[in-house]
Amino acid sequence: MYFGVLGPLLVRTAAGDAVAVPDTKVRTLLLDLLANQGRPVSADRLIDDLWGTRPPRNATGTLQARVSQLRTALDRAEPGARRLVQHGPAGYTLAGGVVDSNSFEQYVRTGRLRDALGLWRGPAYADVPDHEFARAERDRLDNLYLTALEDLSGRGDDVLQETTALVQQRPLDERLHAVHLRALYIAGRQHDALRAYEELRTALADELGADPGPELAELHQAILRHDPALRRSTTLPTPLNDLIGRADALAAAQLQLAQNRLVTLVGPGGVGKTRLALELGRNHTLDVRLLELAPLRQDDVLDALATTLDLRDESTDLLTRLMDSICTRQLLLVLDNCEHLDLADLVGRILTRAPGMRVLATSREPLGLTGEQVFDVPPLTRSAAVELFQARSGVTDDVAAICERLDGIPLALELAATRVRALGVQGLAERLDDRFRLLSGGKAGPERQRTLRATIDWSWELLDDEERQMLRRLAVHAGTFSLEAAAKVSELPEHVLLALVDKSLVAATAGRYRLLESVAAYSLERLTEAGEEAITRDKHATYYLQLAQQAQLHGPGQRVWLHRLDQEAANFRVIPPSLELVNALAWYWYLRGRYGEARRALAAALALPDQQRALRTKAAVWLAGMSATDAQATDVAAAGDRALEEIGDDPDALWFLTMTRWAYGDPVVLMDRIDRAIASFTDRDDQWGVAAALSTRAQLNIVHADLDAMRRDSRRSLELFNELDDDWGRLQATYALIVAAEISGDYPTAGGYLEEAIVRAENLGLWTEVSFRTAGLGRIALLTGDYARADELHEQARRLAIEQSNKSAEEYAEVGLGLAARRQGRLDDAERHFTKWLGWLEQVGGMPGIGFISNQLGYVAEQRGDLATARRLHQRGLEVARQTGDERAIALALEGLAGATEDPGRALDLLAEAAALRQQVGVPLPPAERFDVDRATHRAESVGRGRARR
């Protein structure tokens, strides 16, 4: 049953037929239940909502009559739908059905904004505008609608039709008017936008005696100056000042980028390649991702690219997984400072596998690829150089001679401009003249490099001793760094770094700092000359090791620390491997899903000689856990088991190796391990450990569908994680609760947990968890008969899993696609989805999955009429189920064999045996999962009656 609340009430059957809900009070009752989806509403509250201060004489009886009318209307349209309106101790609940507001919210959250707007037929709960029960939900949905309009407008989409209607209804809403003004501007109606602003300003003054707020006033100014940022949003760093003197180069490069999928900006260091690339990215229509390559070595490129594209790298073959994950992406990839790396093969693969991607590279030389469009970035013209120098220095004097001697190199101009205040134009010219005379005859390198070196040398000479020490010691950092890191590693006060920022030798962006590539190379040479490189690198390694060791990834600081460690990923990668470092970072890598990076780093550290045994054992456990779903790492898993034997009842190791293998290992061994872990955690009063281990034990009890044990352990785990304020833990604790609700047919509860989990996982940036939970919502949609939504959610989860390079999540999502395809009779599609995963499951030891897929393939064969093949597949599923001891899986296989036998008596016996087994474990098959059982029962009874008549 489909319910629409985004506008006037709409009710349709699953087949799309309109359902008439008679009587205003009955419709209001239904809307009240919809506004409290899945939550019971007491009879007293419903009476108050429906009749207010004038209830009927027999209010309870009248309410019951209205409920009966509602159930009858639903059941008449779709037999059995009366069950949607349930009554319990706490009141009445609408338990099931598809509500357009849920789909709307899901679309907005996942960025499918146009699909979201397509569901909007008018103000939410339009039939009950004055009823208090709908106010909060109506306001929330209206706000979400406005958010979708804002996001679309920010991407340059046309939302003018929607905003024009809304501003008439809400004439003083500044937030809405901001979206409307942007929409008018994007539609090419600048004058109308300006006029609308003036009308709003007048209305605010007349009605409220107020002026437009600062955000609206700033938007007004942006419209006046035709700010390009009005037409799209960008994730690129925002430059601190305007791009000067590059209008022609920008236009020409934009044309090249529009006509070619690979454009490389080439030119000498400091000529402005990066700045031009950033401007091209800001003006581009696609999503733009920037990868700064200057601090990277060749071996670091794949890991850094995966991070830039928000991908997980679980696989040992990172390149293959990376290619698979980007094949459907639509974006512009900016590769900055490529000259020291061999990128031709990688870029060629990207462009071949991902037709929706474009690459914009900056380098001192071409990449050397067929089809590459090389764009030479020239030095600034004389007039442009003068304009830039005057703008940066704040002087109006004649500086043409200085600019000419600086060869129009923007970096040189920027550096020189910072010294005008101290030296004056004449003093600057004199010093510059001396410096060029000194270096003009050198033969250390090409002229363009000597010119830039002269500029940096000159800037270096103007620094005091502390500033020089700081600048050269900053060279050991990779990517960006914090103010604290700069001070600790250099052992100098923070104000020294800030002085370098003022002199344009260090770039500052959003509270982080970095060296321009040319300055970094120069500073590293100075560090080596001073004999400080080794000791400074040691201090750098010590600082980042301590940072990793002090990270609080359990509890309330989890989100903040994850973000902080994300910022330092490049610095961690340049530190020589050690067991201390990899053990400190292992949990971070696990949470972020960077299993491939973790495995490589752990293996490298374990290969080092003369390491402490305890650290080696701990690292071996981390490595084994990270390899749980790697089909090529069985030897690693064995090493982890040996390590576990060495350390005995260490609860951390017992729990981690159980948690990472719970769906693939021997359930008896795993249960023994987790019980020991819980006992040890309890003995040492480790509440986080107890909570984590309880959540894992709850998952292990899924095998036997022990609902009481699942709920008991999960709820206690959730209580502990709530006390610890640990969001990752909350995700883990609710998993078995979701499964328990689904097994027992309580789909509203399961869906509620899943929705909450998706929001929490998104907030933490745990995208594989988002994939799993989205696929879980797909299962609920499947079980409630909404196959279109089930397919949509499973496909969304599958794509996200591919992007994150997570095989387990991908398998779970694709099996969901197979289940929905089989329910819809698309048997070839179902077979393809199922068969794809058998080989991988066999390699990783996923016996429960092998059994389940064997049964599903058996059902596919049975639905085709191939009963012999069906019996063979179901028999295999039965054998696997008996090996794992999963009673529900045994029942599933027996039910499959019943459908595949030609003997009706035998079929009914098998069905009875399966039903008894399900009853024995306390989980009879819920109605939504009786699809195959009902088919088998009907066939057996029909055949039996036919034989009896003969």
Automatic annotation (TrEMBL):
Residues in the DNA-binding region are 1-96
Q: What PROSITE patterns would the database entry show?
A: OMPR_PHOB
Q: Which domain of life is it from?
A: Bacteria
Identify the InterPro entries for this entry: BTAD, OmpR/PhoB-type_DNA-bd, P-loop_NTPase, Sig_transdc_resp-reg_C-effctor, TPR-like_helical_dom_sf, WH-like_DNA-bd_sf
Alphabetized, the UniProt keywords read: DNA-binding
Q: Which GO terms describe its biological process?
A: phosphorelay signal transduction system; regulation of DNA-templated transcription
Identification of the protein by name? Putative ATPase
**Organism in which the protein naturally occurs:** Kribbella solani
